[in-house]
Specification:
- The protein contains 8 helices and 18 strands.
- Helix content is 20%, strand content 30%.
- By secondary structure, the protein is of the alpha+beta class.
Length: 299
Amino acid sequence: MNTLFIVLQYLVPQQLLSRLVGRAASSTLPWLKDSLIAPFIRRYGVDMSEAADPDPRNYPSFNAFFTRALREGARPIAEGKRDIACPADGAISQLGDIRDGRIFQAKGRDYSLIELLGGDREAAAPYANGSFATIYLSPKDYHRVHMPLDATLTSMSYVPGQLFSVNNTTAENVDRLFARNERVVCHFDTAAGPMAMVLVGAMIVAGVETVWAGQVAPPPRQITHTRYDQPQQPVTLKKGEEMGRFMLGSTVILLFGEERTRWLQQFEAGSATRMGEVMGEVLQGAEQPATEDAGEQIA
């Protein structure tokens, strides 16, 4: 069955299928959106008691339901000054050290840090021999992505690519999975130095959004770069604030520089995650002075 699943990933028209699903998911026709939401909740056991609005019928579209907000207090944010907060609900796919510019994927498979970041060697340099964490968001999970630390955005890139599924089966069988799929790469300045958050698209993911730019994927099928390091218009976010969301599930990859951070020992491949919980710490002595505007709301 796994072999058939992987073969189908190559054969189906990934982009067309994902865009068609996206249209259905954004529809506000009551009969259509209700016929999608109710079975989805039953199939995946979605806990609506955590939602700000627990009534599925109140959501104007499937996308609105899928990217629903949580009720206040549902996810406490790690408060320690050096605590790294988990950016998303889901499960650890892999985490560890970046070795010789390669990131571990699964079962003897790895991929290039430079390729993940769109072929930009300069952008990849701060993370060489650093650390990474890959978090998979399953269909039942909360699908907004939040900040691990106070940070100031420096740049964002959209990297076109394929749209393979990103579950364990594809991670174990598709070479360079996360460096092949469509993705949005966000670089930040933090107290731990440079930090990258990579939001990876996947099969039937209708889009990827950020709070400062709106929907980023799918745009035209070419690499785009946007710089945000102009002092007159800083984009700053506090730890725990929302930074983006997936319209259908996917993966977030965190990158930090060498000897800047340490993941907690209880986190390993397969560990469940909850947005806001402590998943690591900024190493003593690795802290950098906070940017003047860091932690302020987006202008």
